[in-house]
Amino acid sequence: MENEKIHSGAGNKTGIINSGKVITAEKLTKKFGDFIAVDHISFEVSKGEIFGFLGANGAGKTTAMRMLCGLSIPSSGKAKVAGYDVYHETEKIKKSIGYMSQKFSLYEDLTVRENIRFYGGIYGLSNKQIADKTQYLAEHLHLTSQQDTLVKSLPLGWKQKLAFSVAIVHEPAIVFLDEPTGGVDPVTRREFWELIYDASEQGITIFVTTHYMDEAEYCNRVSIMVDGRIEALDTPKQLKEKMDCASMDDVFLHLARKAVRGE
Amino acid sequence: MKNKHIDKDSGRGKSTAKGGGIKQFYAFVKKEFFHIWRDKRTLFILLGIPITQIIIFGFALTNEVKNSKIAILDLSKEYASQQLIQKISASKYFDYDQRLNAYNEIDPAFKKGKIKMVVVIPQQFGNDLQHINSPKIQLICDGSDPNVATTLATYANAVILDYQMSINQQQKLPYRIESEIRMMYNPELKGAYSFVPGVMALILMLTCAMMTSIAIVKEKEMGTMEVILVSPLKPFGVVVAKAVPYMLLSMVNVMTILLLSVFVLDVPISGNLSLLIGESLLFTITSLALGLLISSVTDSQQVAMLVSLMGMFLPTVVFSGYMFPVENMPVPLQVLSNVVPSKWYYFIVKTIMIKGLGFSYVWKQTLILIGMTILLFALSIKNFKTRLA
After folding, report:
1. Are the Cβ atoms of B232 and A95 closer than 8 angstroms?
2. Burial (CB count within 10 angstroms: exposed 0-12, middle 13-18, buried 19+), residue A249
């Protein structure tokens, strides 16, 4: 019941129920003067997919992600996010996506309840919706007794899970996760990925950047950026087979070594 | 078919934005109040600053010179010199601290540091007074504090002049110019009349500009700014929402200062109160725009604070004219002082509050402030956008 509600909610907002592709990029490029940060990248992401966006520091991941989030206008190329154009419909894109950064982006001096209320509030959720969501999240994350504690006194793992839940509080079509598991132990990381799988089952597309190659294995498909270009894009299994590597670590190193530019 | 669907949907999106705009704004302002309320120490400091400032400036720091310790070297030791000494020591400005006996005692007396002025009455004072009608007196002041030194010399001159008139009373002079002095707007020459407007400018700058810039930069540091930028909130709305609580705090501070100055320092509000408050609100917005500009070029709270202090606190103290007269500065500095918003606000407050004049006397300054505000907003929005592109 709950799942169904969330499922249809996400679909309704975006207007791309049947097309299946939630993100399409075609020769997307961003230049800063002579420097080409993102160099003609093309890819598609389907609804509910967990899409890993890998690359060494300075490979252009952040710039690409900023363009897809409507924060930065591309220099050339085409891209649609949740069915909206990244040039002209950034406001609509912003309504259909969620975002979580490596800093977890919660307000430490607010309580759990207040953080949920705030993020629900800025996405225009009604009081009723916010109350329901708070209730649901508290139970789901086992935070019922901690609802009125300040976020700063929560353990890191809980903060991270809360941050993710808050990022999808408005049931977006896509959620962008920018290195969401920095500084967290492997056990907590696993728990976190369970939340990601839950969200994906509810039809939310996950676009995640990470430096941890074990996490890359969890993704449905992975793209690896080197020097602003996408060098590889496939399922982790296929990538390993194609490059004849034992692990994603080897795949990544194999590709990243080609990089010319540093950080 | 597909297009039609998207159109329908975008129409709905628009209506939610319209309906939710106020609500989103409200959610943000509420959160901002939580931040301020949770940080009790900062709140306490913000509300305490005006009270301590008024008390410090009102009772401790004053440029009026009173009870300065002086020494007198009377070499004449006659009736006339005794009379003059009596006059000088009776004045409330001077505290006749010690009697010197020789010239070589003057230097050690100054070196001890307590004595601010030495009056030297030469040996032939009485004689000259009676016979050649032009006796001489020497005033030696401690020039290491020039303001006090000149003030003391002026006061001493006035006392001597007074004495001279008292002996001349019997004699009829062929002509005599008597100047009658009246100090307009501030008959008692109280320092409070000029520093209350100054403190208002300072406090508004501090609470509004510094706190807004710190609050915005804090979001950048915490990483929450990214999330807000990705959200449907408009950057302009974010900034306004962040500023609203500080504007309210600033208005509380304005009220505190006005109440304290009327009831504790006896500085009346001669002009229109609502005009005064309106102008204060305008200046608050100017300071906010400045804070915004600062926050758009800095990335850490410390830097924001430092820039705010150097960029606003110092110019306000130096260039608004409430501590040091701008007229006495070199021309380039006088020109520079014109870009300091607090200078104009200080003038406006002084004109309305102390002189009791109306809007027709401050409209030019008001326009300048409005112009500055628009310019600052334009600059910071441009900065904001270039960062995003």
Report:
1. yes
2. middle
pLDDT above 70 for B4: no
pLDDT of B9 higher than 60: no
Contacts of A94 in chain B (CB under 8 A): 230-232
Query: Given strand B138-141, what is the order of strands in its sheet?
Result: B94-100, B68-74, B117-121, B138-141
**Most distant CA atoms of chain B, gap in Å:** 118
Residue A111: strand pairing partners? A150
Say yes or no to pLDDT of B168 above 80. no
* Mode of pairing for the β-strands spanning A50-55 and A205-209: parallel
Between residues A129 and A6, which one has the greater pLDDT? A129
Q: Determine whether B278 is exposed, middle or buried from the number of CB atoms within 10 Å of its CB (0-12, 13-18, 19+).
A: middle
Check pLDDT > 80 for residue B387. Answer: no
In the block, tokens 């704004």 appear at B25
- The backbone torsions φ and ψ at residue A27, rounded to the nearest 5 degrees and listed phi first, read 50, 40
What are the chain B neighbours of A150 within 8 Å (beta carbons)? 38
Helix, strand and coil percent figures for chain B, each rounded to 5: 70, 5, 25
By C-alpha distance, the chain B residue nearest A111 is B34
What is the predicted pLDDT for the residue at A1?
38
In angstroms, the CA A210 to CA A193 distance is: 12
Question: Cα separation of A66 and A75, whole Å?
Answer: 13
Residue spans of the domains in chain B: they are 6-60+191-387, 68-167
Give the closest residue to A196 by CA, choosing from A150, A239, A165: A165
Instruction: Choose the closest CB to B38 out of A95, A105, A109.
Output: A109
Check residue B62 and give its pLDDT: 61
In angstroms, the separation between the Cα of residue A237 and the nearest Cα of chain B is 33
| CB contacts, 8 Å: A69 with chain B | 230
Specify whether the CB–CB gap between B379 and B293 falls below 8 A: yes
- Residue of chain A with shortest Cα separation from B9: A15
Residues of B engaging A, defined by a Cβ cutoff of 8 Å:
2, 5-6, 8-10, 13, 16-17, 19-20, 23-24, 26-28, 30-31, 34-35, 38-39, 222-224, 226-233, 388-389
B6/A83 touch (CB, cutoff 8 Å), yes or no:
yes
* Best CA proximity match to B154, nearest among B73, B103, B93, B97: B93
Q: Please report residues of B whose CB lies closer than 8 A to that of A124.
A: 16-17, 19-20, 23-24, 232
**ipTM given for this complex:** 0.78
**Nearest CA distance, B265 vs chain A (angstrom):** 39
The pTM of this model reads: 0.72
Contacts of B134 (CB under 8 A, 6+ apart): B128
Question: What CATH homologous superfamily does B68-167 map to?
Answer: abc type-2 transporter like domain (3.40.1710.10)
Does the pLDDT at position B389 exceed 60?
no
pLDDT, position B370: 96
Tokens, residue B337: 């002082």
* Interval A194-217 mean pLDDT: 89
